[in-house]
Amino acid sequence: MSEGRTYVPTSPTILYDAPTDRRDGREGAVSLTVPVGSDHQLARLLQIGIVLEEVVEARSTRHARRADELEEGVEQLLEAAATESATHRERLEELLAELDADTVPFEEIERLVEAQYEADEAFDGILYDQLCNEETAYKFYDDVIEAIEASDVTFSVDRERVLETLVDIREDEADGVEDVTRLMEQ
pLDDT per residue over 93-152, tens digit each? Predict the structure, then answer.
């Protein structure tokens, strides 16, 4: 592959833009298959998490508005998922605010999330879509936790606090998968 091109894998485990595309001198690459190497990379990952939560919140809210079409318990699950995503977003925003790092424009992060993590519209039913949302979020946070744990970089924000927050959010996503699965089995 020639230098300056961006490889976009089919797996959602790598999110990056080519470092040669950066005209401002900042680091460009963020990979979840290698340790997080800087505050800038951590900030970008937190921003991706924020946008991912916004996507989940918006999709859950949109589905919950179809209350008259939903089976028993589904509307409550969707409302709880939207509320949980809003809480996760706020927690991630707090961490991001503490980082001594330039942030990446929202539009750039949103494109990465849509390309790599947003659920496909072709799912059969609302519960399958919600299951995909929960599983995708779980996988993202699992990847970020692994990349931070593999890093030996000292961040400007407390590493343990970041990991604790991300582990809590990942556990919420795992619970969400279980909740959706339980409803699907009824």
Answer: 899 989 866 655 556 655 665 565 454 444 447 888 889 889 999 999 999 999 999 999
The enclosing domain of 90 has a CATH number of 1.20.1260.10
| DSSP codes of every residue in 74-138 | HHHHHHHHHHHHHHHHHHHHHHHHHS-SPPPPHHHHHHHHHHHTSPPTT-SSHHHHHHHHHHHHH
The number of domains in the chain is: 1
Task: Give the range of the structural domain holding residue 52, as residue numbers without chain letter.
Answer: 19-185
Q: How far apart are CA 110 and CA 121, in angstroms?
A: 17
List, for residues 85-110, the tens digit of each pLDDT value: 989 999 998 999 898 666 555 566 55
- Is 3 inside a domain boundary? no
Tell me how far the alpha carbon of residue 174 is from its chain's centroid: 14
Does residue 12 form part of some domain?
no
